[in-house]
């Protein structure tokens, strides 16, 4: 069962609801280990491909590229606006807008000056033509006409110079006016941003002062989460110590293959975060892409006949008789109905109707408990609780007649819950 969950990295929500807090913590730990293992394998494959590409790439003499490395030995990357001394994005945009406005004003002033110059040239060119015609017609007044022409040319040059001066003066005034307008807009925008920032800070401070209930609720939530994690970790450590004592007393011998490795668990490393993810989109995508497991009743029956009967699943330890505590594919409700007529400590082992595996249903003093049994490694162990691996289901039952399933609940297996109908609910499994 655990192997199937880790292979698909998905667990049915109804099945997850049957797990207690400690089993959920162990399941998260195992799935996290599997994620880290897959991530490391993927990184190794990418590194191999990278090295192969580098070997195949032709080398160029005298040319090489070296990247500036950061403190973590990765390529140093600069993001505009986030580096020390960088201007804010809004300030850069305002400066670009101001520069474009100034260039547009200069362009318009230059076009206006060119139009005025063309008009003056056109006007005075006509006057020059009239003067030349008068000189040709009145040759007797040549000297007087030349003097008049000189005077007119002088006046025209003076007029043209005056017009150019006026155009330059107007251009300078227009430039100053635009610069003053841009400066005024920048000051207004800066003042408005300062006011908005100040109002936001005051609002945050006001909310912090006026909402002590929310802050107290957040503090209690964090304390409760930390307490749950501490309880789950303490329960796992206590059970490991308890199982070790059972091994020392000789109640189990070679049934815990991985127990010694779990005495000093290594917390899996966290892979680097490469990008941010929207949590709602991620949850929706996970639900849409959840694998469709082939856990139909036919496939479960086929699994039991092909893999479990050769392991003597459901038989007594030293005989070919079906154990009184063994049941077929029944639901959680049916198991509770059977146990409702029994005393505290009664139990049965049933085949799960949702996943390939077993479930131990137990009658406690305050209700019913259900423990998933993992059988993915040709051995049997309680999922997330028992670190000991038993060779058969009968060995698991015999062991927990003397040793509790969990230290907190102290569940000991006393009376098996047998069949209450004929034929029994497991008859089709052995035919």
Structural write-up:
This protein is an alpha/beta fold and 431 residues long. Among the domains are: 89-209; 293-430, 2-Layer Sandwich (SHC Adaptor Protein), CATH 3.30.505.10. The protein is built from 11 helices and 6 strands. The chain has helices at 2-8, 13-17, 21-56, 89-137, 142-210, 212-248, 279-288, 297-308, 332-339, 393-399, 427-430, and strands spanning 326-329, 346-351, 358-364, 367-374, 381-382, 415-416. Strands 1, 2, 3, 4, 5 and 6 form a 6-stranded mixed β-sheet that branches. Helix 4 (89-137) runs antiparallel to helix 5. The two termini are 24 Å apart. The model is unreliable at 253-283 and 285-293 (pLDDT under 50).
What are the defining features of this structure?
alpha/beta; elongated; SHC Adaptor Protein; 431 residues
Treating each run of at least 4 consecutive H or I residues as one helix, how many helices? 11
The CATH homology group name of the domain at 293-430? SH2 domain
Percent strand equals 5-15%
Distance between the termini: 24 Å
Classify the secondary structure makeup into a structural class: alpha/beta
Q: Could you report the average pLDDT, rounded to the nearest whole number?
A: 78
**Fraction of residues in helices?**
55-70%
Oligomer: single chain
SSE series = HHHHHHHHEHEEEEHEH
Count of distinct strands: 6
Low-confidence runs: 253-283, 285-293
């Amino acid at each position: 069962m655990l192997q199937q969950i880790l292979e698909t990295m998905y667990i049915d929500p109804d099945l997850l609801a049957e797990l207690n807090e400690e089993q959920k913590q162990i399941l998260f730990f195992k799935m996290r280990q599997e994620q880290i293992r897959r991530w490391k394998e993927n990184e190794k494959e990418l590194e191999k491909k990278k090295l192969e590409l580098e070997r195949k790439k032709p080398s160029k003499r005298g040319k090489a590229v070296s990247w500036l490395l950061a403190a973590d030995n990765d390529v140093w990357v600069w993001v505009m606006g986030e580096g020390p001394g960088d201007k804010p994005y809004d300030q850069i945009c305002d400066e670009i807008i101001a520069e474009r406005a100034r260039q547009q004003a200069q362009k318009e002033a230059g076009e206006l000056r060119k139009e005025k110059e063309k008009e003056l040239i056109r006007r005075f060119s006509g006057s020059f033509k009239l003067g030349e015609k008068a000189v040709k017609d009145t040759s007797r007044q040549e000297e007087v006409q030349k003097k008049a022409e000189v005077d007119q040319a002088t006046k025209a040059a003076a007029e043209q110079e005056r017009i150019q001066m006026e155009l330059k003066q107007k251009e300078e005034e227009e430039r100053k006016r635009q610069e003053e307008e841009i400066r005024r807009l920048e000051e207004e925008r800066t003042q408005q941003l300062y006011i908005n920032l100040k109002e936001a800070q005051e609002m945050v401070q006001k909310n912090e002062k006026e909402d002590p209930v929310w802050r107290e609720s957040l503090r209690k939530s964090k304390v409760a989460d930390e307490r749950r994690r501490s309880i789950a970790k303490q329960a796992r450590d206590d059970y490991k110590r308890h199982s070790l004592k059972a091994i020392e007393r000789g109640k189990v011998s070679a049934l815990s293959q991985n127990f010694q490795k779990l005495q000093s668990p290594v917390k899996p490393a966290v892979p680097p975060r490469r990008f941010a993810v929207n949590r709602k989109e991620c949850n929706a995508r996970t639900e849409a892409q959840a694998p469709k497991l082939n856990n139909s009743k036919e496939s479960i029956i086929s699994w039991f006949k092909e893999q479990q009967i050769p392991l003597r699943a459901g038989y007594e330890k030293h005989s070919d008789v079906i154990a009184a505590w063994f049941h077929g594919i029944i639901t959680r409700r049916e198991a509770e109905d059977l146990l409702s007529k029994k005393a505290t400590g009664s139990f049965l082992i049933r085949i799960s109707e949702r996943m390939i595996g077993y479930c131990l249903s137990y009658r406690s003093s305050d209700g019913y408990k259900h423990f998933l049994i993992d059988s993915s490694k040709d051995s049997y162990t309680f999922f997330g609780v028992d670190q000991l691996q038993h060779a058969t289901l009968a060995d698991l039952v015999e062991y927990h007649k003397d040793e509790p399933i969990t230290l907190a609940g102290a569940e000991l297996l006393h009376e098996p819950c047998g069949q209450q109908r004929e034929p029994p609910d497991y008859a089709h499994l052995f035919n």
